[in-house]
Amino acid sequence: MRLKISLLKEPKHQELVSCVGWTTAEELYSCSDDHQIVKWNLLTSETTQIVKLPDDIYPIDFHWFPKSLGVKKQTQAESFVLTSSDGKFHLISKLGRVEKSVEAHCGAVLAGRWNYEGTALVTVGEDGQIKIWSKTGMLRSTLAQQGTPVYSVAWGPDSEKVLYTAGKQLIIKPLQPNAKVLQWKAHDGIILKVDWNSVNDLILSAGEDCKYKVWDSYGRPLYNSQPHEHPITSVAWAPDGELFAVGSFHTLRLCDKTGVRNVLNDAVDLLEFRDRVIKASLNYAHLVVSTSLQCYVFSTKNWNTPIIFDLKEGTVSLILQAERHFLLVDGSSIYLYSYEGRFISSPKFPGMRTDILNAQTVSLSNDTIAIRDKADEKIIFLFEASTGKPLGDGKFLSHKNEILEIALDQKGLTNDRKIAFIDKNRDLCITSVKRFGKEEQIIKLGTMVHTLAWNDTCNILCGLQDTRFIVWYYPNTVYVDRDILPKTLYERDASEFSKNPHIVSFVGNQVTIRRADGSLVHISITPYPAILHEYVSSSKWEDAVRLCRFVKEQTMWACLAAMAVANRDMTTAEIAYAAIGEIDKVQYINSIKNLPSKESKMAHILLFSGNIQEAEIVLLQAGLVYQAIQININLYNWERALELAVKYKTHVDTVLAYRQKFLETFGKQETNKRYLHYAEGLQIDWEKIKAKIEMEITKEREQSSSSQSSKSIGLKP
């Protein structure tokens, strides 16, 4: 990517231009010491004088009122704040009418910024004061007082904190009184400009020491530029947080968030567009390009005839692709389109702010859209891709901690769709997206994970965990047999990627990682797990076994064991478990095969995977009450065993007998009130109980033989 710079033969301003601000991707306002406010249109190259300010007003800073607010979302901003050297700020409409002028500071007002909701304005000045004002220009509070001029200010992403300069120091001060203030020395010279991005939560600073720097929100340095020839006077983030611009004397630089300059790569095909290109994304054999007015969809098979359609708004900030469709995010909405250019859906939820969405907080698969909420970062909204309506019963996914990054898996059926996410504690968790009635379990896959990515062709997950690069060849193992999860992983040292690396993509068997210095590193992983996924999805179990025998790796056998159990193919599971030395599980699988009915077999397969409730439901629905009671006895789930026996008025004496035997083994006395109540006056007769159990087993065999036409699910003879 490069900056396209053009200069007019005759300047439209007669004096120095002090500040500028975009209204849309193609419209810009500028203010100058000649007291003019001029509107620039990049499409038509027209310039229009909006207003000539009084001669005593010399503009210093300029900021548009946020546009994505309320029920009625505007496509462009309608008013702005202008700060000036006479100690005032001015609220001015888009047409140039000065709505209000407010005496704000002693000396020049050096900066003014609206918060993201448009409910408050912060100003800073030469008098060293930081003041908070209402939307209408009424003073709310003086947040802080410095002994030196404050040159720049920025709101935190949540509009609860303010970042401002204090000489060589940067200070983050919360609006709440008595809250902890964060302060650190950021530069060796006076800091002239700061910006805080709401999407990536990163801070930019520029100073008279001729450097620009990138910080996280805790004041930790992420990038420190080389000294330039002149002081850095201006820095600004692009709204999506991917790029930022740096301004100095006769110098303009375009950088990405790692602080490295972008270069234009050589291209084989030259694609020309009528308007300025804003965003582009290449994936799933399609290139999607957004200009200021239109969207172009190219197939990699044919670059000559793209699908073209008009955009509702030209400020596209994010493009996400899945195999069947792609998603566009602009300043007001989210849109899903097919690769033929057909509009599919536009998901919405209360308080949605599209200006802060990025690739870490939005995820797309063939059937699901997931969006992490900004108002409550513990919540993920899930939508059907085809309709844009909430998924399942409409409930959102809620976690106990704030969520930093989300990713949907890309293959498989909708009912099996999983979402992985990293929370504030850097724990990697996985859960199912389907939400019907019962709360889906959130399971932790790993700790200290900084970045993650799903494979594009099969459900393999990779991540950077502390100083290790890890691949989860079959993450669903946690739902089937958590004991063998470590055997399904691939690990290698990741210290070569230096500090703060980020996974860019996971395509085929190649993972692309971006290091902190901006360089891209490619890692190749073995292709065999992806082939195994393909065989299993096609139910080619014999081919899967042959592949594992050929590769001769424990990870492959462990993955196959978990896949086989998940798909109820216990014959393959037995072979795979034997190959990794899990003898106890092989014996249990053999015992399942000898069970008399298909319902019992299904229930014990569910038990094998730890799904106790589901196993119990299967047995009760089949009328096998004793078997449901027995599995609770075997699991020492005494309360539930007695509850079932009492509810169905059968085998109460059996439960009491096993309970008594259990207590006698450990030399304990009964203390449970319910057991004491039902044991009153009851004599335990083991001969009678054994006869009843034998009768239940015989009854189950007879039921099974009478319905022999239905074969055992997933079980081969």
Could you explain how this protein is built, in words?
The chain has 717 residues and is of the alpha+beta class. Helix content is 20%, strand content 35%. It is built from 13 helices and 46 strands. A hairpin with a 2-residue loop joins strand 25 and strand 26. Helix 4 runs antiparallel to helix 5. The chain is elongated and about 110 Å long.
Overall morphology:
elongated
* Quantity of strands, as a count: 46
Helix fraction by DSSP (H/I, runs of at least 4): 10-25%
Strand order of the largest sheet: 1-2-3-4
What is the number of helical segments per DSSP (H or I, 4+ residues)? 13
| Alpha carbon gyration radius | 32 Å
How large a portion of the residues is in β-strands, by DSSP E? Answer: 35-45%
**Which regions contain 5 or more consecutive residues with pLDDT less than 50?**
261-268, 709-717
Oligomer: single chain
Q: Main sheet, how many strands, which sense, barrel?
A: 4 strands, antiparallel
User: N- to C-terminal separation?
Assistant: 62 Å
Mean pLDDT: 87
